[in-house]
Amino acid sequence: MDLIRHTGLLDPLPLAAAMERAQAGITARFTEVTPDPDRLGKAMGHALIGGKMLRGFLVLESCRLHGIDAALSVDPALAIECMHAYSLVHDDLPCMDDDDMRRGRPTVHKQWDEATAVLAGDALQSLAFELISHSKFGMKGQMLVKMLARLGGRYGMVRGQMQDIAAETMTPPLTLGQISELQRNKTGKLILWACTAGPMLAGDSPKDHPMQTYAQAIGLAFQIADDILDVEGDAATVGKATGKDANAGKATFVSLMGLDEAKRRADELVQSACDALSVYGDEAATLQEAARFIVDRKS
Ligand code: IPE
Ligand code: IPE
Ligand code: MG
Ligand code: MG
Ligand code: MG
Fold this sequence. Notes:
With 299 residues, the protein is mainly alpha-helical. It has 15 helices and two strands. It has one domain: Farnesyl Diphosphate Synthase. 68% of the residues lie in helices and 1% in strands. α4 (70-91) packs antiparallel against α6 (114-132), α10 (210-232) packs antiparallel against α14 (259-276) and α14 packs antiparallel against α15. The model has no long low-confidence stretch (mean pLDDT 95). The chain binds 3-methylbut-3-enyl trihydrogen diphosphate (2 copies) and magnesium ion (3 copies). One 3-methylbut-3-enyl trihydrogen diphosphate binds next to α4, α8 and α9.
């Protein structure tokens, strides 16, 4: 599949095929921008490849829905996957969650060493910004860059990770409101950028956009599903260690609401995500299917 040189709009596809297309296109583009990988490049590739690439898929779909050419949408799709991969490589480090397995394979610091993992994460973050600061995006690119810096950093994902780590030693445990705010940052903000990349490239403000409403609902649903998998999933299927949150004494949606209520809340969020997209009619069917997938997934 040659997504990179594909010009024109991507064809609408059912979810599974659209996700496969995203994975193939993003992987091919990564290989193109990291020729002859050395130790650092190999570690970056190990971190980037093998996941669902949901955030990259969301970029491609949000761009398709807003009339953005596939030749322009693949780099932002790779960029958000680089940010996500960097966040996971650092999240798995011994000083954070101390995980040995991700996607059924050794984590980067296990496959290589801690220094390589820190540096591969750093380089993935730089690559994300390099990809979206190209002149081909014109003035619209400035918004992409500024929003990724904001949503990825001190007011976004990194803030959420700090809140998450701090919460491990906090007594009393976080309230539901505090957990929601933490998750909005930790998981929600990269998903928000992915969903609003299309509107931003089309020149729309992401604020109060239907794609923002959709993103906020699936972002929260995604983290609730992650917390449920940590309780209900087995490591072989999920591809990473489970039971970690309870062991770390973490307050999660599941620990506070119980499994049934957490599932009910996730279902409600899927419904509101789908409702937010009704303005797009049938064109948004794949993204609506994705909202369902986010809570039904087993890994
Ligand atoms: C896992 O994200 C980490 C969270 C933000 C909860 P994904 O479940 O999207 O991970 P991969 O990339 O598909 O492995
Ligand atoms: C990680 O959250 C989220 C980010 C890296 C931003 P978790 O620690 O819950 O993710 P997993 O369970 O290790 O994938
Ligand atoms: Mg973590
Ligand atoms: Mg973790
Ligand atoms: Mg988790």
